[in-house]
Design brief:
Two copies of one chain form a homodimer. Chain A folds into two domains: 131 residues, Aspartate Aminotransferase, domain 1; 241 residues, Aspartate Aminotransferase, domain 2, CATH 3.40.640. Chain A is 44% helix and 15% strand. Chain A contains 14 helices and 15 strands. In chain A, the strands form four sheets. Chain A has a seven-stranded mixed sheet with strand order 2-10-9-8-5-3-4, with helices on both faces. In chain A, strands 11-12-15-14 form a four-stranded antiparallel sheet. In chain A, strands 1-13 form a two-stranded parallel sheet. In chain A, helix 2 crosses helix 10, helix 3 packs across helix 4 and helix 11 runs antiparallel to helix 14. Chain A starts with 5 loop residues before the first strand and ends in a 5-residue tail after the last helix. At the A-B interface, helix 1, helix 3, helix 4 and helix 10 of A face helix 1, helix 3, helix 4 and helix 10 of B.
Chain lengths: 388, 388
């Protein structure tokens, strides 16, 4: 009761109460007119969030399900693609390709760095058999923002599809699919969309749909061609996670009121807040440039164990942060700051981080880091987002 | 405002408000101790509902996803199985097998009839290469209850796995997996479990797990071996649909208080109510024997169009029923009576059915059908469920 429990995890995120309560309404049936009306309303707004005139299709699965849907819909067995692997979710592209017999060229990028688009262009030039590039927009395991716009400028000139996992980026930082030339963009519900997990969204470009038709359905559950056919009737192929669709409509109504541009502006300013605060504390920001707008990774100095720090912040302040993956399990703290979160909460998270850090034996020189962080936030809010 | 809207569809079903509001709680993170505690609590109760000592695994998908998970986990490419096809969901087994290269022997059963277990035994005797039998417990499109107990008595003596879609049957009528000898039982959240759609549950028998190990993972998203490994840590392989897991715990707590035996008793009595009422009205029950305890199909006489009747009942009485599939689209009404529903509501549904039927030009002789239906309910409740 001293502190409220708050999720600063990079998904699930906190939820506005009006979304939670909208989802507690009486159940609807997914084949009846009420559902179709709800879906219709969301369809238009989703186009704005994805920046596309193509249908944005809801699937009943986690974000990973949508990644599988993308691979199995766009590529046939034996097709060659490049999988950009700069973290846990980049590796997931490789695993999915392997499981579904798509040949993936492993393009490793050091954790914490953004892929160099020139490297991808060189690979494509060297091997014209490559049919796709699989990337994250935001690599959730590190907090890197890959330069998807530049990747799209390369792939759109070629017969190469750019498939983007936007799970922790859609509705967090801009990613206008049609304008940039992305061929497939997907996300999950529990990130920028401020919903519980269990709903994924995916859209294909016009040319990607042609590829999907040529490849044909390869996976009974993830059949985007059948989903598109149902979309015309504002239905889903299989039973839709109705309550999440109700919540989605509520979230999109909030976005419409606030405007999606304002959402990005807030996300950018929160990113500036946490980065300024962490720097003021003398802690290391894991990603130096090309950083995500929804998750920030902090690298701890030796001698301070991340799981210990995270457990203390949770216990003492109700501040729930995430740890690092693989080799960074012991030394990284990941702070999610997307969705239903504001600057005061994030400043509180910063305080908890600092306090737990000293409790774990770390040394902090700075005292006014909260003010510095808030100032950086205010400045960023005033100046607006940088172009991506 | 005259009538409350009520779902008498065979899933989604109506929801208790305490489940809806539990799901509106602050979000939990699926990798944190709170989630593990929640999962742990549900794991024990789920064993009772499934009647198994094996883990019951939650998946983030619709019921169909769990059907795909079963086929892809238990059978390799080219394996031969029998698919019992007595309705739309029986056909779905065939489609899934085809999509995932399992060779399915099509065993057609006339719609409205239960499979004859002797026929399956004869098929298995004639073809020892058959490795599995795929069936529904309740075929939702017709309201038939297949004799799964007798099927299991046949398959358990052989090296043949019995895979049962219990989507509209689990927590509706008894299906003790271990006692009967079922090798795979699966369900969806939006039926007897009184939750929104988006969560599926699946359990394998001990010998089915051995088969799954031998087959190995064939589908990246539906990897039951990986799910079982995560189960040991009370986690899910991918992000869990957290709010549905919270609702599940609430539902299972209700079951525990009321006991699952009482749930079955109520379901049986409701089935007697609706069947007695429909008979009293002089309307035709589509399934004469071996009928499901959660959905009842009514065949309308010629001249009365089911879509018209359903639309009238919805508009005038807020009574939402489902229609028939395929050739029965115009002539069948399906009444769902599982989950959070009581006898008074179902008697009201009967009234709406009768009233809409006469409004559509049908003729009814009987006047006291509601009393007859309630009497049948009371009698069934007193006498208790028949053995299955």
């Amino acid at each position: 009761m001293l502190y409220k429990k708050r999720l600063f995890t990079p998904g699930p995120t906190m939820m506005p109460r009006n979304i939670s309560l909208a989802m507690a309404q009486e159940m609807l049936h997914h084949r009846k007119p009420e559902f179709k009306a709800l879906y219709e309303k969301s369809a238009v707004c989703l186009g704005r969030v994805f920046g596309t005139g193509q249908p944005v299709l809801p699937l009943s699965c986690s974000g990973t399900g949508a990644m599988v849907a993308a691979v199995c819909s766009l590529f046939a067995e034996g097709d060659r693609v490049i999988a950009i692997d700069g973290g846990k979710f980049g590796s997931r592209w490789l695993e999915i390709c392997q499981a579904h017999k798509v040949e993936a060229v492993h393009h490793a990028v050091p954790w914490g760095q953004s892929v160099n688009p020139d490297d991808i262009e060189a690979l494509l030039d060297a091997d014209p058999s490559i049919k796709g590039v699989l990337a994250q927009l935001s690599e959730t395991s590190t907090g890197v923002l890959h330069r998807v716009r530049e990747l799209a400028a390369i792939t759109r000139k070629r017969k190469v599809l750019l498939v983007v996992d936007g799970i922790s980026a859609v509705a967090v930082s801009p990613c206008p699919m049609d304008e940039w030339g992305i061929d497939c963009l997907l996300t999950g519900s529990q990130k920028g969309l401020m919903l519980p997990p269990g709903l994924a969204l995916i859209a294909l470009s016009a040319r990607a749909w042609e590829w999907a038709e040529a490849v044909g359905p390869r996976n009974f559950y993830f059949n985007l061609l059948a989903e598109r056919k149902n979309y015309e009737k504002r239905q889903t192929h299989f039973t839709s996670p109705v309550s999440l669709m109700v919540g989605l409509a509520e979230c999109l109504a909030l976005f419409d009121e606030f405007t999606i541009e304002q959402v990005y502006r807030k996300q950018w300013a929160l990113t500036c807040l946490i980065r300024a605060g962490v720097s003021a504390l003398g802690l290391e920001l894991f990603v130096k440039e090309h950083y995500a707008w929804g998750v920030t990774s902090v690298k701890l100095p030796e001698g301070v164990a991340a799981p210990d720090l995270i457990a203390r912040a949770a216990k003492q302040y109700g501040v729930i942060m995430a740890g690092g993956s693989d080799e960074y399990k012991g030394s990284m703290v990941r702070i999610g700051h997307m969705g239903w979160i504001d600057a005061f909460e994030l400043a509180g998270c910063l305080y908890a981080l600092a306090s737990a850090f000293t409790d774990c034996g770390g040394y902090l020189g700075c005292r006014n880091y909260m003010e510095q962080a808030m100032k950086a936030y205010e400045k960023a809010l005033k100046e607006g987002c940088p172009a991506l």
